[in-house]
TrEMBL record:
Record's GO cellular component terms: membrane
Cellular compartments annotated: Membrane
PANTHER family, alphabetized: OLIGOPEPTIDE TRANSPORTER-RELATED (PTHR11654)
Name of this chain's protein: Major facilitator superfamily (MFS) profile domain-containing protein
Organism field: Gossypium darwinii (Darwin's cotton)
Membrane-spanning ranges: 27-48, 68-90, 97-119, 146-167, 188-211, 217-238, 340-360, 380-400, 421-440, 460-488, 509-526, 546-565
Single GO molecular function: transmembrane transporter activity
Coiled-coil segments on the chain, per record: none
Pfam family, one: PTR2
C-alpha cells in the first residue's frame, strides 16, 4: 500500500498546502495555463507604464529629457536585474508559488502609490507651460513628492523582478521532464509564454498608451493597477492544480563553497591519501534522496568529470575546513552553471540591438509619415510591430516549424535550444543591416525633400521601419524562448529559477550596454574634428546608418563568439538531442 502511494507522488514537489503533490492531480498544461494567463496581465501592467514613462516624467514631473531618459533606463534595468533576486528566493527559501504572490502584491502597492499621485494635483509639481513663460522654467519634482514617485516606481520594479524570476519557472515546473510528452509540452509552454508576454505588451502599447495620452495618466496607472490586481485571484484559482518544487537551500552558498574549496584545497599541500581517488568510499558521495529521479541517475559515486578540472580539487577527504566538504554532485552542478555563463554573455549583444527598438527606431519612425489612413499612430505605439510579429510567429513556430523539424531531423526537439538561440543571433545581424539600409533611404528622402534641418514629417511611410522590427521581433522570439528553456533544462534542479532569471538579466545588461556604446561612439567620432555620429539638431543630421553598420559588425563578431561556445557545449538534459 505504501509503495503504491509513493508511485502516485511527484517526488520533491508539494501542493499549495505543503502536502505531497500527486500525479494526475497536480501539474500539467492546465496548471501551466494559469501562469500564461497571468503573464498577459503582468506584462500589460508593467509595459503600459514603462513604454510611455519618459513622457510622464518630462511633461508632468518636469524632469529634463536626459534625466527622464536615465530614470526610465534605470527603472527598467533594475526591474530586470531584480529577477535574479526573485529567482534566488524561489530556489533557496520559498516556492515559485509564494514568490509570485508576494511580488504581485508589492507591484500592486507600488502602482497604488503612483495612481494616487497621478490623481492628486497637490502631490505633483505645479502645472506650467514653458512656451508661454520661457523666463520661468517649470518646477522640477522634489522633496516628498519625488520620494513618493520613486518609492512607487521601485516598488513596481521590485515586484516585476520577483514575478519575472518566478513565473516562467513556476509554469515550466508543471511538466514531467522524464517523459517525451512532458518535455514537448514544456517547450510549447515557453513558446506561448513569449506569446502571452507579447499579447500583454500589445494591449499596453496600443490601448493603455492611447488612454494615457488622451484621457490622462491617472487612468493609465489605474488600468495597470487593476490588471495586476486581477492577476492575483486568477493565479490563486489555479492553486489546486499546481505542483511546487520544494526549495533546496541557497544555490549561491553551494557555488561559493565549491569555488572557495577548490581554491583553498589547491593551495594546500595534500598527501596521496587525500587525493581525488577511490572517491566512492567517501560518505560525501552518497546520492541525495531529495533529488528528482533523473538527477539521481546522474549521481556518480566514482570521480568527477574531467571538464573544468580545477573544480575537482573541491572534492577531498580532508578539506581546508569541515564546512567546505563538497560532494561530487555539488561540484558537477557548479560546472554546469559555469558552462552556461558564456551562452548568457553572448545574448547581451542581441538585447543591445533590441534596445534600439525603443530609442532610435522610434525616433526614425516619428520623423516619417505615421498616418494609417486617417489614423495617426503615436510614436509610443510603434513597438506594436515586433509584438505583432512575435504573436504571429510563436504559434507558427510551435505548430508548423517544430513538427517539420522533428520529422526532418528525427529528433525529439527538432531544433535544439542552442540552434534556436543561434538563429535569433543571426537574425539580429540581418536586422541591423536592414536598419542601416532603411536609414540610408530615409536620409535620401530627407535630402531630396530639403528637410534635413526640419522637424516636419518626411514624405516616406513609417512602414519601412517595420522591416527591421520584423527581423528583430523574430530574433527576440527565437532567443528569449530558447534562453528560458535552455537555462531551465540545463541548470541543476536546485538552481533553475536563478538560472532562468539570467534571461532577464541579459535584457537589462543589453540596455545598459546600448547606452555605453552610444556614449563611446559619440566620444570617439566627436574627437576626430567632425560632429558626433549620434548628435544633431534633428535625427536627419545623425549618422545613424553608420551606427547601425557598426552594430551589424559587432553582432557578427558576437555570433562567431557564440558559435565557439555553442559547438563545444554538451547537453546534460534528457531529450536535448535524443532520437525519437
Amino acid at each position: 500500500m505504501e509503495g503504491g502511494y509513493q508511485d502516485t507522488r511527484w517526488e520533491g514537489y508539494v501542493d499549495w498546502r505543503n502536502k505531497p503533490a500527486l500525479r494526475g492531480k497536480h501539474g500539467g498544461m492546465l496548471a501551466a495555463s494559469f501562469a500564461l494567463a497571468v503573464e498577459v496581465l503582468e506584462n500589460l501592467a508593467y509595459l503600459a507604464n514603462a513604454s510611455n514613462l519618459v513622457l510622464y516624467l518630462s511633461k508632468y514631473m518636469h524632469l529634463s529629457p536626459s534625466k527622464s531618459a536615465n530614470n526610465v533606463t534605470n527603472f527598467m534595468g533594475t526591474a530586470f536585474l531584480l529577477a535574479l533576486l526573485g529567482g534566488f528566493l524561489s530556489d533557496a527559501f520559498f516556492t515559485t508559488y509564494h514568490i509570485y504572490l508576494i511580488s504581485a502584491l508589492i507591484e500592486f502597492l507600488g502602482l497604488i502609490i503612483l495612481t494616487i499621485q497621478a490623481w492628486t494635483p497637490s502631490l505633483k509639481p505645479p502645472t506650467c507651460d514653458p512656451s508661454t513663460t520661457p523666463s520661468m522654467p517649470c518646477q522640477e519634482i522634489d522633496g516628498g513628492k519625488a520620494a513618493m514617485l520613486f518609492i512607487g516606481l521601485y516598488l513596481v520594479a521590485l515586484g516585476v523582478g520577483g514575478i519575472k524570476g518566478s513565473l516562467p519557472t513556476h509554469g515550466a515546473e508543471q511538466f514531467d521532464e522524464n517523459t517525451p510528452q512532458g518535455r514537448k509540452q514544456r517547450s510549447t509552454f515557453f513558446n506561448y509564454f513569449v506569446f502571452c508576454l507579447s499579447f500583454g505588451a500589445l494591449i499596453a502599447v496600443t490601448f493603455v498608451v492611447w488612454v494615457e495620452d488622451n484621457k490622462g495618466w491617472e487612468w493609465g496607472f489605474a488600468i495597470s493597477t487593476i490588471a495586476i490586481l486581477v492577476s492575483i485571484p486568477i493565479f490563486f484559482f489555479g492553486s489546486g492544480f499546481y505542483r511546487n518544487k520544494i526549495p533546496s537551500g541557497s544555490p549561491l552558498t553551494t557555488i561559493c563553497k565549491v569555488l572557495v574549496a577548490a581554491m583553498l584545497n589547491g593551495c594546500m599541500s595534500r598527501n596521496s591519501s587525500n587525493a581525488i581517488a577511490n572517491l566512492s568510499a567517501s560518505p560525501s558521495f552518497e546520492p541525495e534522496t531529495n533529488k528528482e529521479p533523473e538527477e539521481n541517475a546522474k549521481q556518480t559515486d566514482e570521480i568527477p568529470t574531467q571538464s573544468l578540472k580545477f573544480l575537482n580539487r573541491a572534492v577531498v577527504y580532508k578539506p581546508a575546513h569541515p564546512a567546505l566538504q563538497c560532494t561530487v554532485n555539488q561540484v558537477e552542478d557548479v560546472k554546469i552553471v559555469l558552462k552556461i555563463l558564456p551562452i548568457f554573455a553572448c545574448t547581451i549583444a542581441l538585447n543591445c540591438c533590441l534596445a534600439q527598438l525603443s530609442t532610435f527606431s522610434v525616433e526614425q519612425a516619428a520623423s516619417m509619415d505615421t498616418k494609417l489612413g486617417s489614423l495617426k499612430i503615436p510614436p509610443a505605439s510603434l513597438p506594436v510591430f515586433p509584438v505583432v510579429f512575435i504573436m504571429i510567429l510563436a504559434p507558427v513556430y510551435d505548430h508548423l516549424i517544430i513538427p517539420f523539424a522533428r520529422r526532418v531531423t528525427n529528433t525529439e526537439m527538432g531544433i535544439t535550444h542552442l540552434q534556436r538561440i543561434g538563429i535569433g543571433l543571426f537574425l539580429s545581424i540581418i536586422s541591423m543591416a536592414v536598419a542601416a539600409l532603411v536609414e540610408i533611404k530615409r536620409k535620401r528622402v530627407a535630402t531630396d525633400s530639403g528637410l534635413l534641418d526640419s522637424t516636419a514629417p518626411l514624405p516616406i511611410t513609417f512602414f519601412w521601419i517595420a522591416l527591421q522590427y520584423l527581423f528583430l521581433g523574430s530574433a527576440d522570439l527565437f532567443t528569449l524562448a530558447g534562453l528560458l528553456e535552455f537555462f531551465f533544462t540545463e541548470a541543476p534542479s536546485s538552481m533553475r529559477s536563478l538560472a532562468t532569471s539570467l534571461s532577464w538579466t541579459s535584457l537589462a545588461m543589453g540596455y545598459y550596454l546600448s547606452s555605453v556604446i552610444v556614449s563611446i561612439v559619440n566620444n570617439v567620432t566627436g574627437n576626430s574634428g567632425h560632429s558626433p555620429w549620434l548628435s544633431g539638431y534633428t535625427i536627419n543630421r545623425y549618422h545613424l546608418d553608420r551606427f547601425y553598420w557598426l552594430m551589424c559588425v559587432l553582432s557578427t563578431l558576437n555570433f562567431l563568439h557564440y558559435l565557439f561556445w555553442a559547438m563545444r557545449y554538451k547537453y546534460r538534459s534528457a531529450g536535448a538531442g535524443a532520437r525519437k
